[in-house]
Amino acid sequence: MIGNFKIKQMKKVITLCAFVLLSLTSISGIAQSGISFTQESWFKLLERAKTEDKIIFMDAYAVWCGPCKQMSRTTFTDPEVGAFFNKHFINVKMDMEKGEGAQLAKTYQVMAYPTLLFIDSDGKVVHRSVGFQNAKQFLELGKIAADPTRRISALDARYEKGDRSPDFLYEYAQVKYEAMDPVYEEVAKEYLVTQYDWTTEENMKFIFQFTNSSDSKFFDFIIKNRDLFEKQFGRRAVAAKIQNIVSQELSAGEGSEILEKAKTIFAKVYPDKADYMYSQFKISYFGQIDDWENFARAAIDHYDHYKAQSADELNNIAWTFYEKVDNKKQMKCALKWAKEAVEMEDNYYNNDTLAAVWFKLGKKGKARKAALKAIELAKKEGEDYSITQDLLNKINGK
User: Fold this and answer.
1) Fewer beta carbons within 10 Å, N or C terminal of the chain?
2) Which of 355, 351, 361, 354 minimizes the C-alpha distance to 391?
């Protein structure tokens, strides 16, 4: 009995060991199904790249970068991606804001995250791309980087040697765009020069992708042929594209230069309501730079010529005057707007603003009346009226 018991126990131990080893192998397989990243120093990586005759793939990331984390969770763990990258590259992750990464960020001009770099043993970038990529996109990126004839460095050489064939320029512009290299703009222009018909589906897609300035012929073409672009990309997408370009340009400048820029853009993009939009823009612009004198003038001029679209619009401008404008004559305009807002919508917020404006104009009796009405409405509407109560206390000299 004792002997048989020992044999059975040994069998159990052997079976258990086999199970554990199998489990560890499975776990190891799962861990290695994605990209295997090394922890070596940059100097050692360059040495290793030279010894193994491989390209280094660097995931240049920042710890706060959402798309970087998403690529780490999904793209880098993909088995097919892992198999390809582990075979063809030496893979490394580098935090661009600390350690060696901070210096490498300067060396390789990393301006956005994630930046995906492919670097040779001499430390030269042979290919790069910026932004999140899913597994399919990233695998294709890897295949391009692994092909000496398709890398950016190879395309750069072709361009420098004078290759200006349409197919090449189209591809080169795309690659430079993905790398966030400003050169793509000039290449895109060169490509379109070779095209007789800009209204083909492929060329419209190209123009829509590469247009990022209201000063370009591409932008003018979109505006002129807006109906064609809306048919291909949808009205919302075209409107968003135009709005993004306009917003970026009008938020970048200052002074008389930006005002002239706004006037030109509105005339080009919104010819039927350019004056109205420019008038609104001036109010917004002067408010953003805290130029309240010109803000007041612009607002008064605007509402002398255009009717407000809503009670909220009037209430907001009147309240801003209450907070920022001290000129009594200009405050009377705010009073007019506050009254109109109450006539349009007799609610707590509008009466509160009316009370504040009356108070600033020194009319305590009318301010008290408006404040009491605002508080009464607030109670009915279930609104917090503590601000109005504070105003009422000031009116009453408390």
Assistant:
1) N
2) 355
Alpha-carbon distance of 270 to 236, in angstroms, equals 16
Residue 147 CB neighbours (<10 A)? 12
Kindly indicate the confidence band of residue 398, based on its pLDDT and cuts at 50, 70 and 90.
Answer: low
Q: Which amino acid is at 387?
A: I
> DSSP letter at 306?
S
Q: Which of 28, 92, 17 is nearest to 59 (CA)?
A: 92
Which of 88, 86, 130, 135 has the alpha carbon at shortest distance from 108?
130
| Beta-bridge partners for 293 | none
Give yes or no for a cis peptide into 67 (omega within 30° of 0).
no
DSSP string, 11-58: HHHHHHHHHHHHHHHHHHHHHTSS--EE---HHHHHHHHHHHT-EEEE
Q: What is the CA radius of gyration of the chain?
A: 33
Q: What is the mean pLDDT of residues 184-191?
A: 94
Asked whether the beta carbons of 254 and 289 are under 8 A apart, the reply is: yes
Considering only CA atoms, which of 288, 286, 308 is closest in space to residue 297?
A: 286
Residue 163 Ramachandran class (φ > 0 left, ψ -120 to 50 alpha, else beta): beta
Please spell the DSSP secondary structure of 371-382, one letter per residue. HHHHHHHHHHHT
What digits encode the pLDDT tens for the residues 64-81? 999 999 999 999 999 999
Grade residue 381 by pLDDT with cuts at 50, 70 and 90: confident
Tell how strand 115-119 and strand 125-130 pair up: antiparallel
